[in-house]
Hints:
mainly alpha, Arc Repressor Mutant, subunit A, two-stranded antiparallel ribbon, 43% helix, globular, DNA-binding, transferase
Amino acid sequence: MASDGTNDAARRILAAIRALPAGEVAGYGEVARRAGLPGRARLVARLLSTVAEPGLPWHRVLRSDGRVAFPPDSDGFVEQCARLRAEGVPVANGRVRMPRRGPSLDETLWGPPG
DNA sequence: GCTTTGACCATAT
DNA sequence: CATATGGCCAAAG
């Protein structure tokens, strides 16, 4: 069987996005990570941009910052925002509540004087 | 085969 | 919180 690495990777990414439960969101890097492709965040974006898989909850995929990956004046932006709200995801000004990344150990240990 | 582009990410200012 | 910079990878010209 001709298992193409790139094609196989795309398949895993799509599977990871499909595994996203309604009401939850994840960043491109997060999706790539779950797909077993750490550091391929851009690949996930390209996949959604080039390939439009039907039934794929692409609207649950956001940036790491929790912001929509589309420009505020793009149709995709409005579309994603509306879909997220329809699933119970509070979207404000194109931003979604995302858990902050843990602070650096240096900041945690040497940051606050103690 | 090099250059450009892209629904990105992390860090620093 | 916004902007700027460097890095990363893969597809198209």
